[in-house]
Amino acid sequence: MTCTEFLAQLDEMLDQDAAVPLRADLEEHLRCCEHCEITLSTTRTTIQIYRSHEIYELPEDLRERLHKAILAKCRKS
Amino acid sequence: MAAYEKLVKQYDRQVFRIANHIVQNREDAEDVVQDAFLKAYQKLNQFQGNSKFYTWLVRIAVNESLMRLRKRRTGKMVSIDEDVETDEGSMPRDLADWSPDPEALYGQSEMADILRRTIQGLPPGFRVVFALRDVEGLSTEETAETLGLSIPAVKSRLLRARLQLRERLSRYFKRDAKPAQAQDGAK
Predict the structure, then answer these.
(1) Which label site among A59, B69, B138, B171 has the fewest CB atoms less than 10 Å from its CB?
(2) Contact (CB<8Å) B112/A47
């Protein structure tokens, strides 16, 4: 397997939905390719970091203001 | 109305997050939240029980967000197909390994700032797929249905979004990265 072929299947590794024979091929490639190993682990970290940080927080005062505005508009409509 | 208020409270944070991911502007995101919930309320009788209320609501919020982006760009068409033909991110260039604990390199607000600026650099069609699939946890099928895209199109955009984000975050998180680099801004 080449790095390009591995990369095309990267999501299968990340989402853990590769079929068993394909998974074995991908893991075999990983054992001898440091670059793809790094690409896989750092892409996995990228997803984890975005998942675990609330980058667009909705503050409670804004939330209450939005609720009031939404319900008032709905009642009017 | 009390039942609808419950739905607003249940999904407002998610809608606000998705809107921000697309419009990249807090005031516009606030407007999107209001417009999306109002539109959903007005169209409740059109809601077919064959999809989840949440994915139906997200579809409305995504359309409202794209309309908002279009207004901001003074009428220029904006769609989720925009700029997705780029080759950027199709092959990793920065292959340096990352620090074992990248989150320890930056404070909470600095990290949020880095993540916001980094995702801002992606085309809207990549941002929205990444946000729905990886941040909100929708399945590939739900993301495709919500955005009106094919499953292969969702998979292709998701892969490239993930690789582009990884590439752009590398400068902050690689082993020899210095926290001071956070001041430079993402490309």
Answers:
(1) A59
(2) no
